[in-house]
Design a protein that fits this description.
This is Molybdopterin oxidoreductase family protein. InterPro entries: Asp_de-COase-like_dom_sf, MoPterin_dinucl-bd_dom, Mopterin_OxRdtase, Mopterin_OxRdtase_4Fe-4S_dom, Prok_molybdopt-oxidoreductase. Keywords: 4Fe-4S, Iron, Iron-sulfur, Metal-binding. Pfam families: Molybdop_Fe4S4, Molybdopterin, Molydop_binding. This protein is α/β, with parallel strands linked by helices. The protein folds into four domains: 51 residues, ADC-like domains (N-terminal domain of TfIIb, Single Sheet); 231 residues, Rossmann fold, CATH 3.40.50; 191 residues, Dimethylsulfoxide Reductase, domain 2, CATH 3.40.228; 113 residues, Barwin-like endoglucanases. The structure holds iron/sulfur cluster. The site of iron/sulfur cluster has 14 residues, from helix 1.
Length: 695
C-alpha cells in the first residue's frame, strides 16, 4: 500500500506527513516521514515522528466498557449495549432534572466535522444548552480580543510563512521552539535575512535563547508591560498617526489611559528594566514589517482578554495589522484549536462563528437543520462553570466527554475529579483508558486521526484534510458514528450522518454568511490546493490567506482600540503561599499526555514531570537538584522532581501539565475566570514549596 499524505495528530501546526504501512514480514506497523506541506516543509518534531506508535498500540481500547456501579470493575460490552446505556443514562437525567441536565464536553482536537456534529447533537438530539469544550481553556481570551478589536477571530490572519518576511517579531508567552519545532524554520529564515526577534516569557526558553532580546516579566504582568511599551511609543512619537486616523477608532481614550504607565512604574510591576523596554519599543517601531505574536502565556489569565487587547492596542498604534508581513496574531495550541471554536461546540456559539443568542443566526442554522429557531436552546455556561456544577442542583447530571481528559487538564483538577464522581452518569469516548475514562460508567473506544477522514483548520486558518492512512482496529468507531447512533436512540436519527463528507457539506451550508465562512471549501478543493483559507464564501472564491488588507471585519471596517488596565493576579503570593507557580508544555509531551505518555520515545525523553526552580530559591528551601518537591496551593497539592535552572525567575516555579496522579499540575491551578472569555487563570497562582526529606 502506498504512503498516504495526512496530518499529525497533535498540535495546531498540523504538519503534513506521509504514513506508510510496513510489510508484515518487517514486523508490521507504520512508517512516518514529514511531507512537503506549506507549514512544515518536510519537518516533524519528536511527537510527529513517533505518532504512528499510537496506531496498533497495545493499550488501545477496542471494546466498549460498562459497569453498573462505580465500585465495580469494567466489563466488556457490545456496542449495542453500550450505546443503549448511553441513551438511557442521558434520558434518565433529562427526565428527572430537565433537558440541561444532559450535556457534552468536547475538545479542540476533534475534526471540524466532529466539532460541528457535537454542537448539533447537544442542540438537536438532547435539546440541551449544556455544551462547551477544552478550547475554552486554550484560545478563548485571544478569540474574545480578536472579535472585539478586529470583528473576527482568526487567530493568525496571515500564513505562517510570512514570519520569514517580517523584520521584527515579538513573541509573548509563546515557545514554538519546544511546542512546534518545525515552525522555527520560518523564524530562522527571517534571521538569515537579518530579522530581529524579541521574546517575552518568565522563562528563558529555547525560543528566547534564539532571540535578540528577552524580557522576563513577573507572571501575570504582561498587560502592564504592553501598556508601558505603548506609553513609550507615544512618548517617543513612534505612533503611526495616519494609520490610527484612517483605520481605527478609540485611540484618544487609550492614549490618555497609558499615560499612567510611566516606565519606572511598569518596571516595578513587571520586573522588566526600563532600558529593555526602551530598546524593545524602538525595535518594534523601526522595522518595515513587525509582528506581535501572543499565546497562552499571555492569555491564560483572569485578565487574559484584556491582556490580548493590550498587545493589539500596541500593534494598532504602530500601524501593523493589515500591513504586509506585519500584524498581531495568536498562536493556537491544539490540533484543531481554530476549527474547534468555529462550528458550535462553544456554549454560546453556532456554526460559522455565529452567536447562539443572535436571532438571525438561530434562524439560519435552524433552517439548515430543518428546525424551528425556537427549538434551539439558549447559550449555556462555559467549560469550567459546567465542570464546577456537575452533579449539583441546576448542573449537568449526565455527561458525555469526547477528546478531553479533564481530570488532568482542567484547573482545580481535584475538585473537577470529585464533581465527575458526583455525576449520575458519565460516558467517555477515548483511544485509551485515560484518567477521566477511569471514572466513567461507559467507555467508548474511538477511532483516531489516521484511521478516519476529516478536516482540521490549522494555526493559520487553513482548512486541511486528515486522510485515512491506516485501518482502524476492529471494535472501534468514529465519534461521528457514536453521535449519530445515540441520536437515533433518542429519536432524532434523521438529523445526523456518520459520513464525514456529508457532515462537512452540511457544515459548509450552516457556515454560509457567517464570520467563519466555509461555503466554498470542498474536500476536492482542499486536495487540489493543499488547503484553503477561510473565509471562502463561494466556489469561485480563492480563500483568504491574509485578512485586514483593506478593512477590518467590523461594521465600519475600522479596528477598535480598547482601554485596558493592569490588575493583580487573582491570587498573589502571601506569607502562606509565598511563590508564584506557572504552568506549560514541554517538548516531548502534549496536553494531558494521554497519547504521549504512552509513546516510548517520548516517555524515554521525559519520563516524569519535572518542576523548574531557580538555584537561589532551591537553596532557600534546602532542595538539591533531582530531589522531590511538594507543591501546595489553596486547591491541592502535587509532588514532582525538581530541576534546578537559572532559566526561571527566582520567585517563580514552572510545572508542566502533562501528567496525572500525584504529578497533576492542574490540581494546583486557579479556576478564577476571565469575565469576558471565561478563561481560567492557569498561568499564575500562589504556591507553597517544601523539599521532601530523604529524596
Ligand atoms: Fe505534530 Fe506539532 Fe510536532 Fe508538527 S510541530 S510534528 S504538528 S506536534
Amino acid at each position: 500500500m502506498p504512503g498516504v499524505l495526512t496530518h499529525c495528530p497533535y498540535c495546531s501546526l498540523q504538519c503534513g506527513m506521509t504514513v506508510t504501512p510496513r510489510p508484515e514480514s518487517a514486523g508490521g506497523g507504520h512508517d512516518v516521514e514529514g511531507a512537503d506541506f506549506p507549514t512544515n516543509r518536510g519537518g516533524l518534531c519528536e511527537k510527529g515522528l513517533s505518532s504512528t506508535e499510537l496506531l496498533g498500540h497495545p493499550d488501545r481500547l477496542t471494546t466498549p466498557l460498562v459497569r453498573d456501579s462505580r465500585d465495580e470493575p469494567f466489563r466488556e460490552a457490545t456496542w449495542d449495549e453500550a450505546l443503549d446505556r448511553v441513551a438511557a443514562g442521558l434520558t434518565a437525567a433529562q427526565q428527572r432534572y430537565g433537558r440541561d441536565a444532559a450535556g457534552l464536553f468536547g475538545g479542540g482536537g476533534l475534526t471540524n466535522e466532529k466539532a460541528y456534529q457535537a454542537g448539533k447533537f447537544v442542540r438537536v438530539a438532547l435539546r440541551s444548552a449544556a455544551i462547551d469544550y477544552n478550547g475554552r481553556f486554550c484560545m478563548s481570551s485571544a478569540a474574545n480580543a480578536g472579535i472585539r478589536a478586529f470583528g473576527i477571530d482568526r487567530g493568525m490572519p496571515f500564513p505562517l510563512a510570512d514570519i520569514a518576511r517580517a523584520d521584527t517579531v515579538l513573541l509573548v508567552g509563546s515557545n514554538p521552539a519546544d511546542t512546534m519545532p518545525p515552525a522555527m524554520r520560518w523564524f530562522a529564515a527571517g534571521r538569515e535575512r537579518g530579522a530581529q526577534h524579541i521574546v517575552v516569557d518568565p522563562r528563558y526558553t529555547a525560543t528566547a535563547v534564539a532571540a535578540d532580546v528577552h524580557l522576563q516579566p513577573v507572571p501575570g504582568t504582561d498587560l502592564a508591560l504592553a501598556n508601558g511599551l505603548l506609553h513609550l511609543a507615544v512618548k517617543h512619537r513612534l505612533v503611526d498617526a495616519a494609520y490610527v486616523r484612517d483605520r481605527t477608532t478609540g485611540w484618544d481614550a487609550v492614549r490618555r489611559a497609558v499615560r499612567q504607565y510611566w516606565p519606572d512604574r511598569v518596571e516595578r510591576i513587571t520586573g522588566v528594566p526600563v532600558k529593555v523596554m526602551e530598546r524593545t519599543v524602538r525595535m518594534l517601531a523601526a522595522s518595515r514589517a513587525t509582528m506581535i505574536l501572543s499565546a497562552r502565556g499571555a492569555e491564560q489569565h483572569a485578565k487574559g482578554s484584556d491582556t490580548a487587547l493590550a498587545w493589539i492596542n500596541l500593534a494598532l498604534a504602530l500601524g501593523l495589522p493589515g500591513r504586509p508581513y506585519s500584524g498581531w496574531a495568536t498562536v493556537t495550541g491544539q490540533g484543531n484549536g481554530q476549527g474547534g471554536r468555529e462550528h458550535g461546540q462553544k456554549a454560546d456559539q453556532l456554526p460559522g462563528y455565529r452567536m447562539l443568542a443572535d436571532p438571525a443566526a438561530r434562524e439560519h442554522v435552524a433552517g439548515v437543520w430543518g428546525l424551528d429557531p425556537d427549538e434551539l436552546p439558549q447559550p449555556g455556561v462555559s467549560a469550567y462553570e459546567m465542570l464546577d456544577r456537575l452533579g449539583t442542583d441546576g448542573g449537568v447530571r449526565a455527561l458525555m466527554v469526547m477528546a478531553s481528559n479533564v481530570v488532568v487538564s482542567a484547573p482545580n483538577a481535584a475538585h473537577v475529579r470529585r464533581r465527575l464522581r458526583d455525576l449520575d452518569f458519565l460516558v467517555v469516548s477515548d483511544l485509551f483508558l485515560s484518567e477521566t475514562a477511569e471514572l466513567a460508567d461507559v467507555v467508548l473506544p474511538c477511532a483516531q486521526w489516521a484511521e478516519e477522514e476529516g478536516t482540521m483548520t490549522n494555526v493559520e486558518g487553513r482548512v486541511i484534510r486528515r486522510r485515512q492512512a491506516a485501518q482502524a482496529p476492529e471494535g472501534v468507531r468514529s465519534d461521528l458514528a457514536v453521535l449519530a447512533d445515540v441520536a437515533a436512540r433518542l429519536g432524532r436519527g434523521e438529523f445526523f450522518s456518520d459520513d464525514p463528507r456529508t457532515v462537512f457539506d452540511e457544515l459548509r451550508r450552516a457556515s454560509s454568511g457567517g464570520k467563519a465562512d466555509y461555503t466554498g471549501i470542498s474536500y476536492e478543493r482542499i486536495e487540489a490546493e493543499r488547503g484553503v483559507f477561510w473565509p471562502c464564501p463561494d466556489d469561485a472564491h480563492a480563500g483568504t490567506p491574509r485578512l485586514f488588507r483593506e478593512r477590518f471585519a467590523t461594521p465600519d471596517g475600522r479596528a477598535r482600540f480598547h482601554v485596558v488596565h493592569h490588575r493583580a493576579a487573582a491570587e498573589e503570593p502571601d506569607d502562606e503561599y509565598p511563590y508564584r507557580l506557572t504552568t506549560g508544555r514541554t517538548r516531548a509531551h502534549y496536553q494531558s499526555g494521554t497519547q504521549t505518555r504512552r509513546t516510548k520515545a517520548l516517555l524515554d525523553a521525559e519520563p516524569e514531570s519535572v518542576v523548574e526552580i531557580h538555584p537561589d530559591l532551591a537553596a532557600r528551601l534546602g532542595l538539591a537538584d533531582g530531589a522531590d518537591l511538594q507543591l501546595r496551593t489553596r486547591r491541592g497539592s502535587a509532588r514532582m522532581r525538581a530541576r534546578l535552572t537559572t532559566t526561571i525567575r527566582s520567585d517563580t516555579v514552572f510545572a508542566p501539565f502533562h501528567w496525572g496522579g500525584e504529578q497533576t499540575a492542574n490540581a494546583l491551578t486557579n479556576p478564577a475566570l476571565d469575565p469576558a472569555s471565561r478563561m481560567p487563570e492557569f498561568k499564575v497562582c500562589a504556591v507553597a514549596l517544601e523539599a521532601v526529606p530523604g529524596t
